[in-house]
Design a protein that fits this description.
single chain, 397 residues, mainly beta, Gamma-B Crystallin, domain 1, Neuraminidase, five-stranded antiparallel beta sheet, four-stranded antiparallel beta sheet, 1 helix, 28 strands, elongated, FG-GAP
Length: 397
């Protein structure tokens, strides 16, 4: 596994199942040791193939290896992190690196000495090379408080849960910061877009996989999230796709769409001051044929939020306009096909600065921008954001 991860990423097809990073400690000095001498939670290395001779064990990253420089041949990664082994000191990647996945039972043997001069322990494979989150930049929108803006700076924002269960806030200026240190893998559905608590800030809704409970995480107005509140006591595992939609009912609170797994029915759950109100049937069936729902904002310019849905069998993209009767109008085809190749579909408001909502789609390397048109359609523009790799197990919303 040499050379940079980015050069190899197009060949990947599986997601790494990673656990959380353990508490780091100081590295240990070399000693005569066998396999049984490597404790759980440590990265252990030997200079000879097999478990013979001196052993170095560590729970911390090491920018230099001292007397172990270029002398590692066997690696036993008993941490819960990925071990990145660089050919150069200080984690430089000029000539390449290896990585070793966590495995409490088996070591990785190499046929000869590795050119290893530094080692780093990370929670996601991206972090061998770069940040855990991808690059994201948005143009400044004409007005503040727009759809998709979590911190009120007139740029569309992205929230991203990484493979390790951390939650990141990407404010649209090329940076990112941690807003959830772990545990977010407990949720199998995450949605945002709109003010559910009616405090003027955009909120996040999360479904707990083990219990089927639905939680509201109120936005703080600065990109962070406040103390969660229970808005669904159980049973939400009976729903498939969930999409936060914006304010369809016109009461100033955002609403929620959910597809019932058993029937394929589409339900509208209106937002209330304390959670969600009595549901209304919007689609009588067939919605299980869609494998993505995106609340994209007011695409048609009529003052009502609209829904984008991807058809599983054809890869087509459909626009369903919101109506004044809390429903959806006749659909319009806005994507002829090929959309199943996209890992992430993001409706995060106006990203181009023209006042209209846009759509973004990530294909595993590139993030593509599709600008909204005056008629509710999409216009693809050139993209130079190739930082959306190694995110197969992540969720961007």
């Amino acid at each position: 596994m040499r050379n940079t991860l980015l050069r190899r990423v197009a060949a990947w097809a599986t997601t790494l199942g990673l656990a959380s990073l353990g508490v780091l400690g100081a590295g240990a000095a070399p000693a005569q040791a066998a396999r049984s001498d490597c404790p759980m939670g440590y990265l252990c290395v030997w200079g000879a193939q097999g478990y013979n001779g001196p052993m170095l064990k560590t729970k911390t990253s090491m920018a230099t290896l001292g007397s172990w420089d270029n002398k590692i041949e066997t690696v036993f990664n008993r941490t819960s992190s990925i071990a990145c082994l660089y050919d150069e000191p200080n984690y430089a990647r000029t000539t390449g690196y290896h990585w070793v996945d966590p495995d409490p039972d088996y070591a990785t043997h190499y046929g000869d000495m590795l050119s290893t001069s530094s080692m780093k322990l990370v929670r996601t494979l991206r972090e061998c090379e770069t940040d855990a989150y991808p690059y994201w930049e948005a143009a400044t929108a004409p007005k503040a408080g727009g759809f998709g803006d979590m911190n009120g700076d007139r740029r569309a924002d992205i929230a991203l849960r990484d493979e390790a269960g951390r939650l990141w806030f990407l404010p649209g200026d090329g940076t990112g910061r941690l807003i959830g240190s772990g545990g977010w893998n407990a949720f199998d559905a995450l949605a945002r877009h709109g003010d559910f608590s009616r405090d003027g800030r955009e909120d996040v809704i999360a479904r707990e996989k083990a219990t089927g409970k639905l939680w509201l995480y109120p936005g703080t107005g600065s990109g962070g999230l406040g103390t969660r509140a229970l808005i669904g006591s159980g049973g939400w595992n009976s729903m498939g796709r969930i999409a936060a939609f914006g304010d369809l009912t016109g009461d100033g609170r955002s609403d929620l769409f959910a597809v019932e797994k058993a029937t394929g029915k589409l339900w509208l759950y209106p937002g209330t001051g304390s959670g969600l109100g009595a549901r209304k049937l919007v689609g009588s069936g067939g919605w299980n044929s869609m494998n993505a729902l995106v609340g994209a904002g007011d695409m048609t310019g009529d003052g009502r939020p609209d829904l984008i849905a991807r058809e599983k069998a054809t890869g087509k993209l459909w626009l369903y306009p919101g109506t004044s009767t809390w429903g959806l109008g006749g659909r319009t085809l806005i994507g002829n096909g090929g959309w199943n190749s996209m890992q992430h579909l993001l409706g995060i408001g106006d990203t181009s600065g023209d006042g209209r909502p846009d759509l973004h789609a990530a294909d595993g390397i590139w993030l593509h921008q599709y600008q909204g048109t005056a008629t509710g359609g999409l216009r693809k523009v050139a993209s130079d954001n190739g930082d959306w790799w190694a995110l197969e197990g992540a969720a961007a919303f």
